[in-house]
Amino acid sequence: MSEEHYLELCENPVQFEHASSVNNVFFDEANKQVFAVRSGGATGVVVKGPDDKSSVAFRMDDKGEVKCIKFSIGNKILAVQRTSKSVDFINFIPDYPHTEFTQECKMKNANVLGFCWTNWNEIVFITDQGIEFYQVFPDKRNLKLLKSQSINVNWYQYCPETAVILLSTTVQGNVLQPFAFRNGTMSKMSKFEIELPVVPKPAKLSLSERDVAMATIYDQLYVMYLKHHSRSANSPSAEVVLYHLPREGACKKSHVLKLNTTGKFALNIVDNLVVVHHQSSQTSLIFDINLKESDSVNTHQPVLPARSIHPYRIPLSGPAVVPSQPPVPCQLYSSSWSVFQPDIIISASEGYLWYLQVKLPPTVNLLQDKGKLMDFLLRRRECKMVILSVCSQILEGGGFGNLPVVATVFDKLNQVYKDYLEAEQSYTVTMESGPSRGSAAQKRPVRTQAVIDQSDMYTHVLSSFTERKGVSHKFIIAVLMEYIRSLNQFQITVQHYLYELVIKTLVQHNLFYMLHQFLQYHVLSDSKPLACLLLSLESTYPPAHQLSLDMLKRLSTANDEIVEVLLSKQQVLGALRFIRSVGGHDNVSARKFLDAARQTGDQMLFYTVFRSFQQRNQRLRGSPSFNPGEHCEEHVTHFKQLFGEQALMKPSTV
């Protein structure tokens, strides 16, 4: 069971002073910073971020209880809210005055609910009467109102990734008004209504801030609504309803995630998966909105069975710690946990901020449908090695009954591979033709881990599979041909090393008739490396020589190039026979062949090649000797050392 935990807390959490030793702990979602605030005399603030650069400690005057505190991007300006009417600012830019300056909200009788930095020098105040968008001038120590909007506000949420603020309006709070911020501009997006559960009259439900979250999933912004079960018989369980929020156009209800239980829940987004934590069962569920369900496009069941987050142990620290003391188990799903988007869990009582992570290997055995498993894995960030191990695992099942599954998996992999190749080709063509007017600069396609190419399959799966003992050679060949079939189906050029693997497997099992058929019917595409491999098989299978020559003629390849390839593979006699067959023996460089023969270390091969060129010299010039221009002196000396001078051919006399 322990190996089935597919969620875990990161190994290196952000540590901060826990709640028992400070007055207040605040979290800034934009900068991923935790503020531990201790007041009394002067207010001490310790800021911990994801790295050392974003961590800082400072003191400020105690001017009342801190309600909210956040840095602008890059820790340049600090904003602190202490009252419901104003926000104070302190410069952290070097050489700028550190004196505090204050901005009151413009709307009369309004109360500031909070604020959000949308840029290093742009801030939005959210009040119960609307929003106010300001530009901050740290050098002048003042703010300029850029735009404001009057609207009754119950509560708000901010998505820093997209710079969108969501306001809850109306008595029931279920009419949501989003605003988008970009480069000093504020734009009103389409408002929308969230459907609340039906309750018996006269009771009325209102939308709670706790049940709403905003997050980016697959590069699209969604508002997630945790809809608790109503007592009506048709919906006994809770569900998460996703509303798609486009930059332009209407917001639409797009997905429903079925939780099949009731209770307290919290939401995270990890690797484009919606993670739903259930407190009472201490388990989590994951949903993938891009995995299409059979019953309905928009209704989703959990991808995997519910499992708890992997147990986490907190190492003890401090002067009283004995080295042998074991780490303390962390209480998972604690009521003191706070969950933030997209993937953050904070335990204020223990002073830890964790990033939630997905572990892919445990998912492999939990998802039996290998086609669905492949769809799931291909959408994850760190998926390559897990996908390749799944491919090996499927082939280990080793039977023809498994072939349809193998075919499905290959097709899914090659669809992604083909999409990447086409995007790469399109980018290359665009770059070569130069930028066209009015078109946005095209970005080079990113090669994700989901792109499993032929070398990946060959190196990690197929080459070891062909050598596996106890697997039927017919099944091995069927699998190799299935992969080649899939590549051809997606019009991907098959690399020669895959054909070589097929040929070597056929030869190893003496299936020459099948090899002949594959070549005759062009199942194996012509290529120079393939032709050279066939030439090397001549001693095992004599017809391979002619098959190879036919292939080379079809390729219309330059003969000297073929000779170079053969010599590089130490097929020296094969190269000699080939050059004779095409009538080029009289003109080739003797030294090139003698160099290659000598490099093999095979003395009899060197003898045969040397004697062959002596015979050529005799036939062409009436003497077996090499001309000085052929630079073969060192090979003549080497021949004498090996076989003695008497072994040299003597000029024949007529």
Automatic annotation (TrEMBL):
GO CC, one annotated term: lysosomal membrane
SUPFAM superfamilies named in the record: TolB, C-terminal domain
GO BP annotation list: regulation of autophagy
Xref: Pfam families: RMC1_C, RMC1_N
Domain Mic1, first and last residues per copy: 380-627
UniProt feature coiled coil, ranges: none
Location of the Regulator of MON1-CCZ1 complex N-terminal domain: 25-143
Protein name: Regulator of MON1-CCZ1 complex
Organism in which the protein naturally occurs: Betta splendens (Siamese fighting fish)
Gene symbol of the encoding locus: rmc1
